[in-house]
Automatic annotation (TrEMBL):
Name of the protein described by the UniProt record: N-acetylmannosaminyltransferase
This protein's UniProt keywords: Glycosyltransferase, Transferase
Keyword Glycosyltransferase assigned: yes
Main EC class the enzyme belongs to: transferase
Record flagged with keyword Acyltransferase: no
GO molecular function, one term: N-acetylglucosaminyldiphosphoundecaprenol N-acetyl-beta-D-mannosaminyltransferase activity
Residues of the full protein shown: 1 to 193 of 238
EC number: 2.4.1.187
Origin: domain of life: Bacteria
Amino acid sequence: MKTFSVFDLPIHLSDDYEGWLCDRIYHNIGTHVVTMNSEMAMMAQKNNDLKQYIQNADLVVPDGSGVVLYLRQRGQKQKRVAGIELAESLVKRLGQKGKENPICFYGAAVGVTDKAAKKFQALIPDIYIINNHGFLQGDDLQAWCEKIKQVQPKLILVGLGVPRQEEWIVNHRHLAPNAVWIGVGGSFDIWGG
Ligand code: UDP
């Protein structure tokens, strides 16, 4: 996919990120997706670890009007892609196939991903979601990692905030090496609210 550099950070240019990601899922190609807005781009200038996570991601989508404006001013006609909309669309699409496409929601305060999962279940009865909150520690966190390993979700949404979620994905993607992993910030709070 064509890339454009924004302050040393890659942005992938496309008009069909969803199709590209579905193809990766179909072919079992593990993928780390970063949805980048200007705050994240600024944070990465001061946080070298975050910069590396973004540089090594398989897909960086322009989430945020600042990034899109930056691209347009440099002649790149790229549409903004809201990370939450991309994630929601993938959840709905994969969810249709039930247990064939397990989905994982991880993050936010206690109870929030329960509500978010129920909301999707009401729309798509067959959807198969495993979920947990984002404040697990010790044995609970260990057990959650084991569950991810056992279930092998096709899509894993991690909402721990930036840069924690990017770091978590990089350090844990070996648990489900064929999954599409996306850092979704506060999306669970919106779906579960
Ligand atoms: N969060 C979490 N575990 C933590 C710290 C934060 O699950 O240890 C969650 C928090 O409850 C919220 C999300 O991470 O749901 C951060 O949302 P925010 O909108 O701040 O994300 P960002 O702006 O960083 O994308």
